[in-house]
Write a structure and sequence with these properties.
This protein is an alpha/beta fold. It has two domains: 4-128, Response regulator (Rossmann fold); 132-242, LytTr DNA-binding domain (OB fold (Dihydrolipoamide Acetyltransferase, E2P), Beta Barrel), CATH 2.40.50. The protein has helices spanning 12-25, 36-45, 63-71, 87-94, 108-125, 186-192, 233-242, and strands spanning 4-8, 28-33, 50-54, 78-82, 100-103, 144-149, 152-157, 161-167, 170-175, 179-182, 198-202, 205-208, 212-216, 221-224, 227-230. A hairpin with a 2-residue loop joins β8 (161-167) and β9. α2 (36-45) runs parallel beside α3. The protein starts with a strand and ends with a helix.
């Protein structure tokens, strides 16, 4: 099956450059759109394998906000392409965990390498990951769930999970003895686990409340299984209430 690439770019010159390079590299050009509304429609109709996304686009959302919306339901890698060089834009974009960040003007070789490195990385990690469609309800019970790694199913006790971390297009499941990499959105995984056991402490982290060792309120750091987990201002009150500490 062809590797499908969606272009989200509102400048015709750059859009043409992207389309020509995709064709040259032999990938499938899924569509080119210039606004957030049309981009969401394309993604919901047929999820691309990669998105080349300008940050400054037309529509209700900019490229960074659009990336957040897409990642709520679909694990699609994104390469940001922008002329914006300020630190705030880079910090906002980094929080969506893009696979690459290219500044305009860019050369064809820069773009080509970014795409090919992304494709290569996805092909390397896919066999060891669990695909979304393989996560059926039969893989979960009240006490454990199974993680598929290559040709093995490993049983993981839910109460042994220390914390769960969003890792771009994957989710990391951390236990005391092992880390698993799962190709499933953190939101979807959390929905399958006991809501009374796990709580969000940061945009990218959920912790097992029974495994919390200490909380540094000054530094906003939680110690779980010897690991330091960030505690955001947004999640602080809910977290402390769950622990009955306020």
């Amino acid at each position: 099956m062809s590797f499908k690439i969606l272009i989200v770019e509102d400048q015709a010159l750059y859009a043409d450059q992207l389309e020509m390079l995709i064709d040259k590299l032999g990938y499938a050009h899924l569509a080119t759109v210039d606004n957030s509304t049309d981009a969401l429609m394309v993604v919901n109709r047929q999820a691309p394998d990669l998105i080349l996304m300008d940050i400054h686009i037309r529509g209700t959302h900019d490229g960074i906000e659009l990336a957040d919306l897409i990642h709520q339901d679909k694990l699609v890698p994104i390469i940001f392409i922008t002329s914006l060089q300020d630190d705030l834009t880079f910090a906002r974009a980094s929080r969506t965990q893009p696979v690459h960040f290219l500044l305009k003007p860019f050369s064809n070789i820069q773009l080509q390498r970014a795409i090919e490195l992304t494709v290569s990385k996805l092909h390397e990690t896919e066999p060891a990951s669990t695909k979304m469609e393989e996560w059926e309800n039969d893989f979960f019970s009240d006490e454990h769930f199974f993680i598929k790694t290559r040709q093995r199913l490993e049983k993981v006790a839910i109460n042994e999970v220390l914390y769960i971390e969003s890792d771009g297009h994957y989710t990391q499941v951390h236990t005391a003895h092992k880390k698993f990499l799962v190709r499933l959105s953190t939101t979807k995984l959390i929905q399958k686990l006991p809501e009374t056991l796990f709580i969000q402490t940061h945009r990218s982290f959920y912790v097992n409340t029974q495994k919390v060792q200490s909380v540094d309120l000054e530094e906003s750091i939680i110690l779980v299984g010897g690991q330091s987990i960030p505690l955001s201002k947004r999640n602080k009150d809910d977290f402390l209430k769950r622990l009955n500490w306020i």
